[in-house]
Design a protein that fits this description.
Rossmann fold; 2 domains; five-stranded parallel beta sheet; two-stranded antiparallel ribbon; 7 strands; 49% helix
Length: 209
């Protein structure tokens, strides 16, 4: 049975992935936003609040997970981070499957996954779109964020696959260092190309590399 072509959308911090994801939406492509799903699940009444509190006491409150307090418990602690991921990932996977069922009739869908390569998610997609920009542009964007410091930025980069490696493994590259209009034109051109290519033919099996 035919299913949508699954594009894995990824990119390092500050590369403009969220902006590109919105451009895919504007072009009519459904997008599964892993970060947004996690945010909802960790919000007031979210299904992850209780298990996270049990594993990391004091990390939640009436408004859900207190990101600062949770971050303080897992930041720079690989074992703690692994425990958190073991709580979060199964629920995200279930939501992703529900998303696929909901959009089974679409020709293309996007999985917006920040750590697509790092956490093995590449095996769940057909092709990979990497969002990138020059390093100086990335650094300027990230350090402009509230609460960001050079040390924190360096730590985040250390947890992510280098941009050059992601670019080398990409099926498609979207450059966000050229201005919004040009980036959006790239996205729309890619969507048109893939829709034309599909032509109603069932898509290939997921990548395993």
């Amino acid at each position: 049975m035919s299913r949508p072509l699954i594009l894995g959308l990824t990119g390092s911090i500050g590369m403009g992935k969220s902006t590109v994801a919105q451009m895919f939406r504007a072009a009519g492509v459904p997008v599964f936003d892993a970060d947004a799903i996690v945010h909802d699940m960790q919000g007031p009444g979210g299904i992850l609040v209780a298990p996270i509190e049990a594993a990391f006491p004091g990390s939640t409150g009436p408004d859900g997970v207190l990101r600062g307090k949770l971050g303080a418990q897992v930041f720079a602690d690989p074992a703690a981070l692994a425990r958190l991921e073991a709580i979060v990932h199964p629920s995200v996977a279930a939501s992703r499957q529900a998303f696929l069922l909901e959009h089974a009739g679409e020709g293309i869908v996007v999985f917006d996954i920040p750590l697509l390569f790092e956490k093995g998610g590449v095996s769940q997609v057909d092709r990979v779109v990497v969002v990138s920009a020059p390093a100086e542009v990335q650094r300027t964007r990230v350090l402009a964020r509230p609460g960001m410091t050079p040390d924190k930025f360096a730590h985040i980069l250390a947890l992510q696959m280098p941009d050059a490696d992601k670019r080398a493994r990409a099926d498609y590259l979207i450059d966000t260092g050229t201005g919004l209009a040009r980036t959006e034109a790239e996205v729309r051109a890619l969507v048109a190309r893939l829709r034309d290519e599909r032509g109603g033919v069932p898509c290939q099996a997921p990548r395993r590399d």
